Amino acid sequence: MRTRYIQKGAEVSEFSQIPLWRRGNRRDLIQIGIGLFVVLFVLSSYLVAVLHLLPNDPLQINLKEMMQRPDYKHVLGTDFMGRDILSRIIVGSQAYFMPGLLAIAIAISFGTLAGLVSGYNGGTIDAIISYILDLIDSIPKMVIILLAIALFRPGIYLIMLIVGLTNIPAVASLIKSKVIFLKKRNFIEAAKALGLRTRQIILKHILWHNCKTVVIIQATLGMGEAILIETSLSYLGFGVQEPVPSWGNMVAAGKDYFFRGDFYLSTAPAMAILISILGFYLLGDGLNNILEWRRKK
Amino acid sequence: MTHFISWRPILKILSRELLITILLLLGVSIIIFSILHMAPGDPLHIFINIQTQNPDEIAAIKRDLGLDRWLPLQYLSWLNNILHGNFGNSFRTGRPVFNELIGVSLYTLILTIGSMIVTLLISVPIAIFSSLRRHPVLSWGLTLLAYIFSALPVFWLGYIVIYIFTHKFNLFPFLSAGYAGTAKFNFLYFLLPIIVLGVGNGAISEIIRHLNAQLERVLSEDYIKAAKAKGASIWRHSFKEGMLIPVTTMVAAKIPFILGGAVIVEQVFNWPGMGRLAWQAALDRDYPIIMGITIFAAFFVHIGRFLQTIVYLFVDPQITAKGEEA
Amino acid sequence: MAEDILRVEDLRTYFYSFTKEAFIRAVDGVSFNIKKGEVLGIVGESGCGKSITAQSIMGLITDGPGIITGNIFLNNNGNTVNLLDGLPDYASIKKKRKAIYEISKDVLGWQKRSETLMNGIRGMVISMIFQNPKSALNPFMPIGEQIAESIMLHKAIATKKEALSFAAAWLERVQIDSPNMRLYDYPFSLSGGMCQRIMIAMSLSSEPSLLIADEPTTGLDVTIQTKIIELLKKLKEELNLTILLITHDMGVIMQLADKIAVMYGGKIVEYGLKREIMDNDSFIRHPYTIALLNSLPTIEEIRAKERLRAIKGDVPDTITLYRGCRFYDRCTLKNDRIKNKCKESEPEMIEIGTGHLMRCWLAE
Ligand SMILES: Nc1ncnc2c1ncn2[C@@H]1O[C@H](COP(=O)(O)OP(=O)(O)O)[C@@H](O)[C@H]1O
Ligand code: SF4
Ligand SMILES: [Mg+2]
């Protein structure tokens, strides 16, 4: 509908017998390795928090042990109220993990659906869906979140629902371009000519083979974004409120000490943010290089 | 060069684009209007700040404002107001929203455009460098650095910069855009937030990735090989498709993202822009302000998209020739 | 005898494939020479290394890792230069317990040296036209500008206006109607045949000593193919062009070439003057050449739009190291006398007539 510049280049990965680990080069594998390590870390810290296996109570104020540097008792030291930073960082991962999954689920399910329907049908349906997606794309994510905050004071799940909604167009356009490409390559037409059962099997096979990469990659990148949004909102004071820890409000809480030259309180959670977002991004792009692999000419 | 551009298809495409943009902005206004009506409390509160609790008085005010009419009619009169620049008054200051926004949006525009330029200054050279494939290890290092930039929490980056400039160089803390304690305009203070947002907006790695992929694709096209075979510069020949179009695409696509980052950077640096105002409004539940900001932001996004179309039109002769999607 | 414009000696271009962990020997010891005013036709099925030969000469192969060795002597206005001079170590291979584990490539240094060597030669002394002319022209530039660019790069013409009028003259020469209008057209609005004419005009506008034409007619309609061949023939007469003509189409070769090199699996299997090879009295031809000639459709077949009778079998992958003749599997002429020899050892180039060489045991 809109004059979009569709950049050339093959749109689908090849059906290939070459095993995954042989497709990318060493760098992709290193990136994926780092990414998986971080994902594992985030996952295990989430589990640790859920199962109450924390090394210390994150809310326990201990004014005798304020601002301690890392030692045996407090592996990452304590903050200005003597609370254990490691425990707080671990609990902080709870602030985004499940809501982030919600955002990813919404973006992927609705995005895939919209992309499939509009790519497959074209015509009026495509125009309507494209209009709706363009509409979603019109308002910056952060602004619409702030609007929602002003009006409804929503919780983190509702905010992540909005984030998921705003991510639908990205997923949809990726899926749509794949479907259109496959249509042009006559895969889909060929499958249509077959009997109903075979057709369904083949359609499912083709679509699944070509769209699963988008789904996997978007899921990974989506978690990175969920962390970004959650920490930003907590930093702005709209997310998780003190004393419940979140990485964003921990950075914000350490601000005064930071300007006095005591960097540690803000920097520790900031590093947690940096490393986990970095991990998800590296994983997503490494997977992209490998899963969307094409034989070089 | 006596190059004649045929204007008719260009005008046709531009008018169609304009129509779509208007349709989208109308859609945005409908969304905002419905969200406002779903908001908790009496819709009356959304438009004016009233002190009275007397139901009779409230009903009278509502009648005066036409808030008892059929909803679509209300929407039309609301839209009419918006189109005349009447966004209502801010609850906090009582001043017209439009006037508040105009002053503030200029700052945000400077911040957004400036940081976009900074982002491009970082990402374009890295993309070109790694598409040369000359120093693979170094270009991988640069790409990883770009990933780290993208993952940096921008508020923390802001803290570091502020700390360095207030403590190490003994400058005063930031008061607002370009002004520090001495209340004398300082260009450095003006540039710092722009640079911080440009580095830490989180889009750098994606931009590099896109530019690099497109440039490599174009450099392996037949016509670049042919240009090389005739002794011409491959950069001259790959510039339009390999650089100009991907950069335009990315700039237009990342405007919303950078506007989002501006909310945080403006907060960190006390930059008197729309983002800070939005934060304040969200805090105070200042409905008219946040509504106005949403409309302004959508407007900015669409201006970006429109400019993108114009660039495409003048770069790629095929779009104008076909007069349709390219 | 006229002087050699180009003499290629033992040119080898290997690509390293990481997935197969072996070298693809796309060009494997190719030697030939072209004299002034001569047309050398390289013919062979697609995938046998013709384009890579041409691109190696032009220095267009930069996507490593791989190896390019040999000598390419080019007569550049009287002084001979070796285009691969000092460039043998494009890639050096590190071996560890027999397995190649790393190819360290000095691509940067190689490219620099190659660029300095080729500077002033590409487009100036050697020009090249490509298969698929539509994608070889820059889609974002009017064609007049592209030709003018070539002219301004290689001729002493400084103003764009002058270059454009020069370009228009060249368009006229390649038989394009209303050239002054066409100058401002973009490639996408022109037909394939038109684009190829423009490519020809562009590559000849700098008056090169050698024109490399890589499949100039492939992908065009049959009628347009003949027109392009006619055009090349006419220009050759007019300008006394030296052409390295690459094609998989024996018909094109028959019409244009003076000398033929038949390529198979990265090697030249038969080489000689056209009248020697195509002479009806000549009894000895390489079995592959015979197969290629047999695959030519007759006029009746073209009329009946019958499909080309392809040679049975596939082009050998050049990865496998052959002990015997590369054509062994597909050769229908091997007889019991030489069969074992064919299988066991690779034939050398054997001179069977004046300047007629062949790589086949039959010739012994
Ligand atoms: N960049 C490359 N990397 C690996 N192999 C290549 C490359 N380019 C060409 N080849 C191989 O070299 C062989 C010869 O190719 P080419 O010269 O293009 O054939 P043709 O005779 O049809 O022009 C092909 O079989 C191809 O597989
Ligand atoms: S050497 Fe033997 S197998 Fe090879 S072409 Fe000659 S006869 Fe055939
Ligand atoms: Mg070829």
Q: Could you give a quick summary of the protein structure above?
A:
The complex is a heterotrimer of chains A (297), B (326) and C (364). With 297 residues, chain A is mostly helical. Chain A is 71% helix and 0% strand.
Your description of this structure?
The complex is a heterotrimer of chains A (297), B (326) and C (364). Chain A is mostly helical. Helix content of chain A is 71%, strand content 0%. Chain B is mainly alpha-helical and 326 residues long. In chain B, 76% of the residues lie in helices and 2% in strands. In chain B, strand 1 (174-176) and strand 2 (179-180) form a beta hairpin. In chain B, helix 5 packs across helix 9, helix 6 runs antiparallel to helix 9 and helix 9 (204-219) packs antiparallel against helix 11. The longest helix of chain B is centred in the middle third of the chain and has 36 residues, at 97-132. In chain C, strand 1 (4-17) and strand 2 form a beta hairpin. The model of chain C is unreliable at 96-102 and 305-309 (pLDDT under 50). In chain C, the strands form three sheets. Chain C has an eight-stranded mixed β-sheet with strand order 8-9-10-3-11-12-14-13, sandwiched between helices. Chains in contact: A-B, B-C. At the A-B interface, helix 5, helix 6, helix 9, helix 10 and helix 11 of A face helix 1, helix 6, helix 7, helix 9 and helix 11 of B. The complex binds adenosine-5'-diphosphate, iron/sulfur cluster and magnesium ion (MG). Iron/sulfur cluster (SF4) is lined by residues 287, 325, 327-328, 331, 333-334, 338, 342, 347, 360-362 of chain C.
What gyration radius of chain C follows from the Cα positions, in whole Å?
21 Å
Helix percentage of chain A: over 70%
The tally of strands of chain C reads 14
Largest sheet of chain A: none
Biggest interface pair, counts: A-B, 56 and 75 residues
Beta-strand content estimate of chain A: under 5%
- Level-1 CATH class name of the largest domain in chain C: Alpha Beta
Q: Give me the CATH fold name of the largest domain in chain C.
A: Rossmann fold
Task: Give unreliable regions of chain A as ranges.
Answer: 6-11
Bound molecules: adenosine-5'-diphosphate, iron/sulfur cluster, magnesium ion
Provide the residue-averaged pLDDT of chain A: 80
Measured distance between first and last alpha carbons of chain C: 30 Å
* CATH architecture type of the largest domain in chain C: 3-Layer(aba) Sandwich
In oligomeric terms, what are we looking at?
A: heterotrimer
Q: How many separate structural domains of chain C?
A: 2
Number of separate helices of chain C: 13
